[in-house]
Amino acid sequence: MKTNSDEMHNQEMLLKKIRQSSEVFDKLANSYEVWVPESGWLAGRRNRDKNDSKRKNLTDWSILSFLLEIDNCHYPMADSYLQYGIDGVIRIAAETLETLKNNLQSELQDQTQLDIAYLESLLHVWKRFQQFVADHMVLALECAKQETSDTKKKRYEKIAKICQNLTINKPNTFCEALQLFWFTYLFRSPFGAGCIGRLDQLLYPFYKHDCEMGIWDQQEAEKMLEEMFTRMNEINTGDTLRNLMLSGQDAKGNDQTNEITYLILVAYENTGGSEPHLNVRFHEKTPKKLRDNCINMLSSGSGQPTIYFDEAVLPAMEKAGICHEDACQYANDGCTETVIAGKSAIVFWQYEMVKTVELTLFGGNENPCVKPVSMKKNSIHGVDFVPKTNLLIGIESKKTQELTTFSEFLSAFFEQMDHQLDHYFLMIKQKMQEDQTVSITSPFTAGTFEKCLRTGKDPLRGGGFDITNYQLLSGSIGTAADCLYAIQSAVYEKKLVTMEELIKALSVDFEGYEVLRQQLLHLPKYGNDKKEVDALAKQIADHFLARVNAFRGPENTLLYPGLYNIDFKIFANVTGATPDGRRFRDAIAEHCSPTPGAAKKGPTAILNSASTLPMKEGFASSVLHLTLDKNGYSMGADRIKIIDTLLRASEKKKIPVLSLTMYDKAELLDAQLHPEKHQDLIVRVWGFQARFTELDKELQDHIINRIS
């Protein structure tokens, strides 16, 4: 029960965060260099020396953490800045602010004062942003004055004209819209990172305008896109959240592929880097040209683009209560979780399924062979840390020696899962409550939502996030199923080992039990079209999805489930030896894919196993990752044919998301030994691409072992 003192405390916290957001934004703006290119068209930010004094303004982690607290950068911005321009955003917000001040009612005074403070902060940051764009106009004019070449002078003058227009008008041309997108995107985070969203849909109206006015310049537009992609690769690469979604269908079922869709694909291929991360929505009306372009890109082996299948994703969203029109606006966040562009943010948690098997075996405690280890999350340039499980240790469960049948063991496993999920649900409810009481959205990001501009309300509380998007995800279903089947087969059916002996072997990480480990490794595994294992995987997924779907938070808020995990490497480092023959720190499966190295019968068998799972019910994100050996398919027609076949089979089997890569295993192994020879080798990690040589060895091994 809320008290007046609680509400006063919450309001004070909100006002403090609102004030702080303006201060931090100023520091971010002051840290950015005003820069125009010596060649090309796209103004704004280049990669700079890490020792630059301005960059040091943002090295304070308290500043960085605050920016991430108020905007996790995992969802696309809305489009009011493209509709109305910077000056339009400021004008609408100022009009709303004046109305709120004039209509201040005593009974709503506290809430209105918050809205007023929020709008004042929004106006502050957008005016500072407007000045930042104007500074580029001034610099471009100075460069033009100093330039002796007429061609270069005209180019600088055009950049200045674009920047000037963006400070006082809404964008009209494609070049203006792309320049404004880039400026706005840079202020999304201090890292030049964040979710991009449906860029072809955002930019298409400006292409159409240019065509109608007879001023469309495809070469110039393509070059600007290439410049933007190059700039992204220069700033940073890897887990940058830069997901860009293309195509899809509208609410009437019409295909939304357009000329900008193809232009983005061409610009990406011409750039040749790992940024941004491309995703394409397929459906029954997807043009053959787009499908063929995607297949050709996939045949190169980079893992771009990831394919989303509308026929699987849209019905599941609608079943969860998202209206068809909104569902058709879906994109993906910084990885592969779904978001509704312009209508939702995203917060997600990950559940450790394989660790749940461990806790069941050890009576609610960890396997004794688990030791603290120092690791990097993915990049060799990342910081070292010691991971810990997020599950509760010590929840007492039945002693495994007392479980006389596999059915009893399976019940104990689900009971342990339920205990752990109840713990998660408490955390999630607390976060939902915080979002309604003491959290704020970045006023800069909020300025891209028209509803916020018209009402003055934070998108979290009626100003834009019309669809709540909290997600609980759990992948590694394949490894968990392998573990359960090993227990069923080796302990209860074939009597290869007693439960007591198995637990003893797991406790010492199979030291002295290699014969047993080999027996366990050679049992049937998920990903090989084995009905007995796949049936267990389905049971695990069904139970998890049912529990998450039954959750209700404050104000009846839903929690969306997904069969997906990005932290599979972390989970492997906190999960001891497991009954499938895996040793402590060995890889576990990601998403709905098999454990790396476990799939022996090729991609069709993997696809058949995955299709037994209720993947489309986990619409928050349920991904199948297929990695093929390039050496198994000759260049050209063979590769095209197998990729096309797998795409059509995935679509038919209602796989929501397919990530498909082709690697030369020998090349990856050589890159581990001679990284200097393979600096341009790009691989798919989870929701992003990265240079193989920049990944730490543990993750490199994981990627190599995926190949089937």
Can you give a write-up of this model?
The protein is of the alpha/beta class and 708 residues long. Among the domains are: 1-178, no CATH class; 342-586, no CATH class. Helix content is 50%, strand content 7%. The protein has 25 helices and 12 strands. The protein has helices spanning 4-31, 61-70, 80-102, 109-146, 150-168, 174-186, 199-213, 218-235, 259-271, 288-299, 310-319, 324-327, 353-361, 406-437, 443-446, 450-455, 477-493, 499-507, 514-521, 531-550, 568-572, 603-610, 637-652, 665-673, 697-706, and strands at 243-247, 277-282, 306-309, 330-332, 338-340, 347-350, 470-473, 560-562, 623-629, 657-663, 682-684, 689-691. The protein has a 5-stranded mixed sheet with strand order 1-2-3-10-9. A 3-stranded parallel sheet has the order 6-7-8, with helices on one face. A two-stranded antiparallel sheet has the order 4-5. The longest helix is centred in the first third of the chain and has 38 residues, at 109-146. The chain is globular, with a radius of gyration of 26 Å. The mean pLDDT is 94.
Q: Going across the major beta sheet, what is the strand order?
A: 1-2-3-10-9
Largest sheet: 5 strands, mixed
> What share of residues are in beta strands?
5-15%
Low-confidence stretches: none
What distance separates the N and C termini?
A: 56 Å
Cα shape:
globular
Number of helices: 25
Helix content: 40-55%
The count of β-strands is 12
Radius of gyration: 26 Å
Mean pLDDT: 94
